Amino acid sequence: MKKVVLKIDHLKKSFGNKVVIKDLDLEVYEGEFLTLLGSSGCGKTTILRAIAGLDPVTEGQIYIDGKDVTKLEPKHREVNTIFQNYALFPLMTVEDNIGFGLKMKKVPKQEIKKRVHEMLELVHLLGYEKRKPKELSGGEQQRVSIARGLINNPKVLLLDEPLSALDQKLRKNMQLELKQLQKKLGITFIYVTHSQDEALTMSDRIVLLKDGKIEQVDTPVKIYEHPNSLYTAQFLGDSNLFQGIVTEVGKEYTWVKVEDTMIKIISQEWQIGDKLDIILRPENIKISLNEETENVFQGKIIDQIYDGASTDLIIKVDKKTINAMYLGNDKLYNKGQMIYITWDIEDAIVLKREPYE
Amino acid sequence: MKKIMENVYLILVFIFLFLPITVLILFSFNTSSLNIVFEGFTLHWYQDLLQNRTLLESLVNTLIVAGISTIVSTAIGTISAYGLHKYSFKGKNLVNELLYIPVVIPEIVLGIALLSVYTLLKLELGMFTLILAHICFCIPFVIISVRSVLEGMDSHIEEVASDLGASRFQIFTKITIPMLMPGILSGAQLALTLSLDDVVISYFTAGPGANTLPLQVYSMIKTGITPDVNALITIMLGIVFILLTISTVVQLRRLKKEDVR
Amino acid sequence: MSNKKIWKIFFLAPIIIYVALLIALPLCYILLISFFKSDYYGGMISTFTIQNYIDVFDQVYVSVFLKSILIAGITTIICILISYPFVIAVSHKHPRTQKILMTLVMVPFLTNSLIRMYGWLVLLRKSGVINQVLLGTGIISEPLSLMYNIPGILIGMVYTLLPFMILPLYSSVSTIEPYLLEAASDLGASKIKTFFKIIVPQTLPGLFNGSLMVFTPALGYFFIIDILGGGKMMILGNLIKNQFLTARNWPFGAAISIILVLITSLIILAYRKLGGKMDDLGGA
Q1: ipTM for the whole complex
Q2: Which of residues 11-50 of C touch B (CB under 8 A)?
Q3: Looking at the whole model, is its pTM more than 0.90?
Q4: Closest A-chain CA to B164
């Protein structure tokens, strides 16, 4: 049994009469890297601020280590927050910034000095003690803010889009560094982002949010390969969508009619007449010059897009545009060429069409 | 050619700006007491000044009024700018609008309005009413000056401080005030300038017990000004000039530092 | 929780008391007494009458209004004409020189404006420095009347208010990107065209700001009129001052003040409609 370090119970938050978080339950385990993922306005930052105690909640409880902290001030909660723009104290040195939390706790000066030194070592900033935030690069500033957040040994570290102000290359490096840091310290991280890449590469579990509600909570692999809704499938990764109706149910396979083509899928609890969404990831689509026996569409190459290590293909199937890709950058096809697309039967993601859509 | 024209023009404008002050400084060293032609150098008027109780008193009064109203309006202005930035309350918009009134209405209206209220409240005109009036027209300028810095401040900084265990008081004194310092200082400088410069509002709100230098000069213009007034003005200018030079040098140093970077 | 409330009160109480007692109350009171009647002994009778406002339309007072607006208007125009070339010339200098020059503009400001008027009195009067110099060098044979007339008043007004025009104009000129001016001259625009097509539109906010900060005080600076106008002229400032201190007809003085406030409000309204920000007005 994993230990629950943070529990959110029926959380509700509204600003005026605008309800941002509807009714949210969540358990976060000790030592895990949990990502709150969603587009802007989904409520991810609101949840983070509620955990930190920066904004009061409208309804519901928050427990840290089994203790109800809902009404406690931020400073009495064993969590710390890292903000997007680092929010370093501009007039203090790196040393004073990192040591601020201990100074507020009236820790002896010698002890502060020692702990700050450890923290600087941890984030590879030894020798930067006397610098001012202005004299640091974006990445260095972010490390200072992380060190400042970690020095109080919080039970949970909250990170609000901490990498979004950095450039692409630096962001990749910092992703790795953050992940390693988290593993090394074993502290629970709750990480807010709108970037699916960040979520997929760093998280132990992803919480996908939509309109203030949890859409799905799962490991990156599960959430990508077995999304339980069309929204999840389309939010994470690229997808090609086919819609069809079940016409024949067998023991092992089920047949679905998509436009005029019959498609074979693995049987689950489908029944004849069910309306299904069939989702294919671009990397799972195979291109063939010969007509295969089953699960095949004929299409025309519209465009090939060079993407460095891989190549993206835009294919027209009837009126539908399909995205596919292959590794490597050799030009294998010509524009306008007729081809066939197919896929491995187990790669198709099949969902029952949600009635309201 | 263009450069020369520009420089000539700049010099002309500066001559215009400095002419009346230069004349007063020169005449404070003039042996003739008539302020008409420069006859010879003397420090006589400075000795006279030391004997002139009324004049010295008016100088002291001016400095007291300027000092107290600068300190009080800077303190209230800073607290208020912060309060208006951070909190919302019923009628906040109205307060924000009313704040601009002392900035934009002609001073004379504020002067007579304050005079009327003082009379209504049966406050005897004197130093207190004068200082209150100066505080009244200085506060909005301090607020505007501090607010401009507040608006550029990352609101997360205060949240981080509270997250790390700082109390409301510690946040305000250790984090916020130091960050607002540039705005507070320029607000204070503005308040000091406005207070020293004011004639109109002082004229209505001072009363007999609170003779300040400008009011003294105003009443003397009608009866004739003695040269020791020139000496007094010169001394005040000297002090102001020294203060201003210090502040300019400090600012230039900062500019230079930024240039290097 | 109550701790939070105490802080809120700490940060908001002073401003609310201030606005209520030192801004709202005085203005409301002035508005109130402008509907009172004077008892001709310096007191007021608290009845409701609009007679004071009717009296303002007496020919004598209408002409004071017009004269005040004329003097304030001319002052504003002269200030604009002096300031534009000045700030453009300053903006061509090295940043550090600019800083020094703009500080120098502020220096005379730091002595009281009345004392500076006294300086002008010493310069301009019949036996003053300027006349002495001109007579001494034989340029003129008779002393000129440089004051106690309209030019004298205008010198005083322009002198006192010029920095209020220079400062906002300078801060808006310094925001013009140099490449704009280079691009204009690259494209063959003449100096005059560049000025009207680029510099003027870009500095419009500063120009409005400056005009506002020059025009409205000019309506009320009675001491300039007193010193350099020799008591022969009267603008709104003198009129109000006299009603309150000499004639002791407070209700009438209050009515004139209210009209002055209305004029100012109209100007502010126009300033805002044109996109002006109120906070910029406090920068001088």
Answers
A1: 0.87
A2: 11-12, 14-16, 18-19, 22-27, 29-30, 33
A3: no
A4: A101
